[in-house]
Amino acid sequence: MERYDYFRQFHDISPADYGQLTDHLQQRSFKKGEMIVVPGQTQRDLYFVKSGVQMAYADAGDKTYVIDFSYTPFLCAIAESFSFQVPSKYFLTCLTDSELEYLSYEQLQILLDQSQSIERLFRRLIEGMLADMVDLHINLRAMTIEERYRSFCRRNPQLLQLVPHKYIASYLGIDPTNFSKLFNQVKL
Q: Rounded to whole angstroms, what are the CA distances from 54 to 27, 30, 36, 70?
C-alpha cells in the first residue's frame, strides 16, 4: 500500500497537503541490527518506513519484551519519547536493512501549525495507534494463545518470514516453545 493511500484511511488529506508533508522528508538508511533509539536517548526524528522491519522493545534482565513492529507504510517511533521529547525507556532497532524517511520534531511542529489537514492526519494516526494498543492489551488477556497467533497471522502474515519467531512470541505474550508448536501445527 502506498503511504498516501495509507494516510487517507485516517484523513482525506489533499495531494497538496500531502506534498507539503513529504517535501520536507529526508532519507536515512540503517543496517540490520542497527539501533535507531536506545534507552536514555530522546527520539528527535519521526520515521516513515520505506522498506524493512523495525522493532520497539524493552529489556528486563535476560528477557526481551516486544512492544511493536513497524514496516511500510507505517510510522516508526518510540511515541512517548518523540511526542514529549523525553528520554526513551525503550529500544528501537532494525530487524532488517531499512530505508526510512524522517522529519525532525521541530519541522513536524511547524507543519502542524501551518496545516489543519496535516494536524488532523496526525491526530487521527495517533488515535488509530491508541486503539490498536488497547486491542492488543485486551487480546493478551482475553484470547487464547492460538487465537492471538491466528489474529497476528491474519494482520501481519509477512512478518512470519521476516521476524525471528522469538520476537513475535514475545509480542503476543506466548512462550517461544508454544509459538513454535502453533507455527508448525496451526493451518491458516
A: 16, 10, 9, 5
Q: What confidence tens digit (pLDDT) does each residue in 35-90 have? A: 999 999 999 999 999 999 999 999 998 899 999 999 999 999 999 999 999 999 99
The second-level CATH assignment, the architecture, of 3-114 is Sandwich (2.60)
- Domain ranges (residues) in the chain: 3-114
Cell numbers standing for residue 106: 521541530
pTM: 0.90
CA–centroid distance for 72 within its chain: 9
